[in-house]
Write a structure and sequence with these properties.
The chain has a four-stranded mixed sheet with strand order 1-2-3-4. The chain has four helices and four strands, in the order αβββααβα. The chain has a single domain, classed as Trna Endonuclease, Chain: A, domain 1. With about 90 residues, the chain is of the alpha+beta class. The longest helix has 12 residues. A hairpin with a 2-residue loop joins β2 and β3.
C-alpha cells in the first residue's frame, strides 16, 4: 500500500464520496471504488513522492485498466490528495 493511500481514501470520503477500499485484493485490481450520486470511478493510488519509475503501473494494473476501459469504465491514477478535488 502506498504511503498516501489512506489520506487519498479519506479525502474522497470527506468530499462526500462512498469509498470501497479494494487494495487488499491485489493482482492489479484498482485500489479504490468511489461513488458519489450518479458518478463513479475506480482509482489506482500511486505515491507522488516516489520517483517516476516507482509510480509506473504494474503489468497486472495495466491489464485491469484495459479490461475496465473495454467495459467503458475509466480508472483514474491519483498521486496526490489535491487531485481528489479535481474530480
Amino acid at each position: 500500500m502506498d504511503a498516501n493511500h489512506a489520506a487519498i481514501r479519506e479525502e474522497f470520503r470527506r468530499l462526500g464520496w462512498v469509498v470501497e477500499d479494494l487494495s487488499h485484493i491485489g493482482h492489479g485490481v484498482p485500489d479504490l471504488y468511489c461513488e458519489k450520486g450518479d458518478r463513479y470511478t475506480f482509482v489506482e493510488v500511486k505515491d507522488g513522492e516516489k520517483p517516476p519509475s516507482k509510480r509506473r503501473l504494474t503489468g497486472d494494473e495495466v491489464f485491469w485498466h484495459e479490461i475496465l476501459k473495454r467495459a467503458g469504465v475509466t480508472v483514474r491514477v491519483i498521486e496526490r490528495v489535491e487531485q481528489v478535488a479535481e474530480l
